[in-house]
Amino acid sequence: MFSRKRSSFIPVPLLLLAARLSTSCTTYSSSLVAGHRVTSSSVEADFDSKCSSIASQLDSSIPNATIRFAEFVTQGTNLTLTDSDQHPSCVAEPAFPGSLIIRADVCRISLDVQTSGRSGIRMEAWLPRNWTGRFLSTGNGWIGGCIQYVDMAYTSSLGFATVGTNNGHDDGYSGRSFLNNSDVLEDFVYRSVHTGVVVGKDITKTFYGNEHTKSYYLGCSTGGRQGLKSIQHFPEDFDGVVAGAPGNQWNKMMDASSHIFSLTGTPDAPSFVPAEAWVNIVIPDILKQCDTIDGVEDGVIEDPNLCNYVPSPDIVCLVDSNSTSCITPEQADTVRKVFSPFFIGDEFIYPRLVPGSVSDALHVVLTGDVASAEWFKFVVNSDPNLDAKTLGPSDWKKCIAQDPFNISTFKGDISAFKNRGGKLLSYHGQGDSLISPESSEMYYDHVSSNMDLSNSQMDDFYRLFRISGMLHCFAGPGAWNVGQGLFGDTSPGSDYTDPEKNVLMATVRWVEEGMAPETIEGTKFVNDTNSLGIELSRKHCRFPLRNTYDGIGDSTKPESWSCQPVSDP
Ligand SMILES: *[C@@H]1O[C@H](CO)[C@@H](O)[C@H](O)[C@H]1NC(C)=O
Ligand SMILES: *[C@@H]1O[C@H](CO)[C@@H](O)[C@H](O)[C@H]1NC(C)=O
Ligand SMILES: *[C@@H]1O[C@H](CO)[C@@H](O)[C@H](O)[C@H]1NC(C)=O
Ligand SMILES: *[C@@H]1O[C@H](CO)[C@@H](O)[C@H](O)[C@H]1NC(C)=O
Ligand SMILES: *[C@@H]1O[C@H](CO)[C@@H](O)[C@H](O)[C@H]1NC(C)=O
Ligand SMILES: *[C@@H]1O[C@H](CO)[C@@H](O)[C@H](O)[C@H]1NC(C)=O
Ligand SMILES: *[C@@H]1O[C@H](CO)[C@@H](O)[C@H](O)[C@H]1NC(C)=O
Ligand SMILES: [Ca+2]
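^ thats the input. predicted complex w/ 2-acetamido-2-deoxy-beta-D-glucopyranose below
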């Protein structure tokens, strides 16, 4: 179902999220849960009745909450999500399917929690029968409005008591509920996740009769930003955070989409490069220039920082030519500019679009429309009738200056999280053309210089893994399955919950056993289908190390690569 081509069915995500696991039954988890693992069958029958009675118990004990329902859902259930579970627009995005197969017995609790007189969140808690004692919050995608059910199913099946929220509104991918309501916006920026965590920990304790042992977070895209926000402002919320492709520098990222539109123009503009020209002419040219920099011709640009792509002269033809094998000089200029850093005047704003497959961008920022229009309409300008195509430098500056509730999420001092022993595992697809992977390097460097920490000191609590050949959060030509949830394949029975191969379980091991991940081994299945076998495995390195081919071994095997220090400027 999720072939490499599936990204062409993604309508307008821009930012997704992430989560999903399976069972990793290492001895430490057994000892952690020994006190409350369910063992006898009478206790198992109890689980069902406890689930039925929990609603009335919670209604009276959780402040500002209204329980919608609590239901026992058994493993193997094909759960159909109705419009009252999520806005219909959520279903258009594969991250939020209309149904999903439940992988473990859970008590599913749905509730509303008021966050102010004019705002509130809808959240769910999925409490697995086979609880490991761990708590976890999932995150959201793009501008929220959709509970990430796929991730809740994944993490609850791994034994985490899991929560997820709608990020403060039920409008799916529309930003209309932000209009003139800073409380809804505040929920979106940070309060939704934090409230879900506070309430979720409470529910967990009430349900199981014990406090959780450790607390985790798993998210990508907007979800990555939410994870960083928690670390920056609520350092007590989590012991371990997995932040994928984080959309921090949020305002600048909104500007960058608008800026890219200003370069491409609409599909009828002479500067516009149609998708077919990208796919048939430009992308092959990018690969021709950059694929073999890493020594292997495999469609994966291992380190795009080494790829300073400019269109080759032989793909550029004369103005007005209608050839299907070349682009016009004006289109070539567009290509060159989108792969250049974004400046307003002399001021650097945001990194370039990363050269690679750009297949995510083709559906989002290279469509000839403004991908961030919702943000400018409903937040920056409070004007639903705004024509986002007219935006320019003064609007971009205004957007940066507003920074509502510090949605930029770029605080350099995260010492409170570090000092309490928190661990941050961040990852970023090197083929991500929605959120520049360079942005993750910038944040890493910002924390490092702000806290005056060397790379090896950073390694104690903050590791950034650069995942080659991964698009935005999932998919791509590289070894992109890293247990990140979403569409990562972590089928029960597979070994992809091994901490060596799974970002979440690596974080659990780091937190609970002090064993930090050196590499994350990603897997690429043939046609992205587990049952067809493995096409490629690669151990991804932590920043700033670079994965380097030994020049002789089988390049599809991790042993033929090693993590080397980067010496270029
Ligand atoms: C519960 O988890 C343990 C390990 O934590 C595992 O051995 C066992 O098979 C699981 N039981 C069920 C019913 O999933
Ligand atoms: C689950 O149910 C949906 C309809 O709600 C159906 O389209 C889907 O094929 C079902 N999945 C499986 C695996 O049976
Ligand atoms: C309950 O909601 C009100 C706003 O409606 C808020 O002021 C108060 O802090 C909330 N209480 C808790 C415990 O969250
Ligand atoms: C939102 O607020 C702006 C000014 O702050 C006002 O012009 C506009 O009418 C308001 N829109 C709505 C829908 O209330
Ligand atoms: C190029 O093709 C388009 C439609 O395919 C046509 O409208 C246009 O006139 C052609 N231009 C030239 C210079 O042939
Ligand atoms: C944003 O962050 C700055 C600096 O950390 C702080 O002074 C300010 O109060 C924050 N603003 C909001 C709305 O949280
Ligand atoms: C993989 O997908 C391609 C294109 O869809 C198809 O031609 C090929 O047969 C598939 N390979 C396998 C092993 O299914
Ligand atoms: Ca390569």
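The longest strand covers residues 106-116.
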